[in-house]
Amino acid sequence: MIKLTTQQIADILKAKLIGRGDIVVETTSTDTRQAIENGLFFALKGENFDAHNYLENAVAQGCVAVVVERECEINVPQIVVANTRLALGELAKWLKAKLNPKTVAMTGSSGKTTVKEMTAKILQKMTACDDEVLYTFGNLNNDLGVPMTLLRLTEQHKYAVVELGANHIGEIAYTTEITQPDACLVNNVAPAHLEGFGSLAGVAQAKGEIYRGLKADGKAIVNLAFYYPEWQKEIGSHEMQSFSYIGSDKDSYADYWAENVQLHLAGSRFTLHTPQGEVEIELPYLGKHNVSNALAATSLAMSVGATLEAVKAGLEQRSMVKGRLFPVQINEHCLFIDDTYNANVDSMKSAISVLENYPAYRIFVVADMGELGEESGACHQEVADFAKEANLDLIVSFGKESAVISQNSEHHFTDKQKMVEFLTPIILQKVEQKQPLVLLAKGSRSQKMETVISELCKLFNLNF
């Protein structure tokens, strides 16, 4: 964040200032456990917490001023607002507009973080220093994470790459209004968070809100494989571009498309077609779904000035993110793949497609998909049918509804440790026989399937 005085912040937020107006803040915080210097603390409130009760802790951690909803007894300047959560967004929106870096944003049911990472890598090839590109840290993509991302902006940043997520209608409309992107896209639409959205149509409606916050001269980018005509109302008169990868001649109708795609065990190679020309890409990301993600990233980066050379260099530089097809090489014969960050129907199918391509003994370790509401049973059955067609060597499941995926009561577990104990002799035998083995673990965030990968790594004295 740029340096601001408490008086300047009070003016920006149209808020009451109690105490000195000349105190300078350099960063923001919403976490009293976080040590920062010259910080501005936002006292957020929720159903089960009220940070106003912990202001002394924030000051002890280095905060020199606080944003509150009521006057408190604290010996630092207080900026009193009606709603601290909304004030966080207002300050972020002001800072973004003032510094005005070229900004792209993406949302979707899956692949958001991968597209973000790819886009950031491409744009970093356009700058003299990687630090001139701000991008969302981890998956901080909600109504708090997006403002906190934008509040990291400084005069140094030439580009911003912002991931937007949501679990209810209206959330993306709010965060994209703060972000005001120069270009944005919906990566895909799939059954996810159905409890919050009600239906697939609700998911599409929520994702389409991203086009509402585009700048006046901004570009709306759509995935032709997931385009919903009702988005046109949000897109309005903005310029529209498209990308597509469905593996057919229909792709060539898009502005960005892939040809001659060859999947291999380390990723893929393909010819990338863009409005600037074509180039051969060696993509170090597994699975055909990542070809589509690469097209999405290319369209975003080029919409804010990236060259074809930068696209090639950025896409061919792998950004390793745990939980997202993260490879853990045990030895030359054994590979674990950590895809445990989250799961919905489409990402489950993508993971299965990656696994089935390996010339090895293929183990799928799967857990429940969450937040699917009344459609949960049907969604798990859809994955089960897809997994059966893939003809994997072994499927083991954990949780409640995922039992249908393993299709064998002896291969379903409600205790992760027992699952590990079941898998251990199988894995050790294959390793001893030097038979190639690939194990891929996946499930919704609530299932924490990364703990299974961690326990299995201990068999080989590896820390995960």
UniProtKB/TrEMBL annotation:
Q: Give, as in the UniProt entry, the pathway in which the protein acts.
A: Cell wall biogenesis; peptidoglycan biosynthesis
- What InterPro entries is this protein classified in? Mur-like_cat_sf, Mur_ligase_C, Mur_ligase_C_dom_sf, Mur_ligase_cen, MurCDEF_CellWall_CoF430Synth, MurE/MurF_N, UDP-N-AcMur_synth
- This protein's superkingdom? Bacteria
Any one GO MF term held by the record is: UDP-N-acetylmuramoyl-tripeptide-D-alanyl-D-alanine ligase activity
Q: What class of enzyme is it?
A: ligase
Catalyzed reactions per annotation: D-alanyl-D-alanine + UDP-N-acetyl-alpha-D-muramoyl-L-alanyl-gamma-D-glutamyl-meso-2,6-diaminopimelate + ATP = UDP-N-acetyl-alpha-D-muramoyl-L-alanyl-gamma-D-glutamyl-meso-2,6-diaminopimeloyl-D-alanyl-D-alanine + ADP + phosphate + H(+)
Residue ranges occupied by any Mur ligase central domain in the UniProt entry: 107-300
Q: Where in the cell is it found?
A: Cytoplasm
Q: The Mur ligase C-terminal domain covers which part of the protein?
A: 323-422
Chain sites annotated for binding ATP: 108-114
* Known EC number: 6.3.2.10
Q: Which keywords are on file for this protein?
A: ATP-binding, Cell cycle, Cell division, Cell shape, Cell wall biogenesis/degradation, Cytoplasm, Ligase, Nucleotide-binding, Peptidoglycan synthesis
Q: Which NCBIfam families match?
A: murF, PRK10773.1
Q: What does this protein do?
A: Involved in cell wall formation. Catalyzes the final step in the synthesis of UDP-N-acetylmuramoyl-pentapeptide, the precursor of murein.
User: What family does this belong to?
Assistant: Belongs to the MurCDEF family. MurF subfamily.
* Descriptive protein name: UDP-N-acetylmuramoyl-tripeptide--D-alanyl-D-alanine ligase
Q: Which organism does this record belong to?
A: Mannheimia cairinae
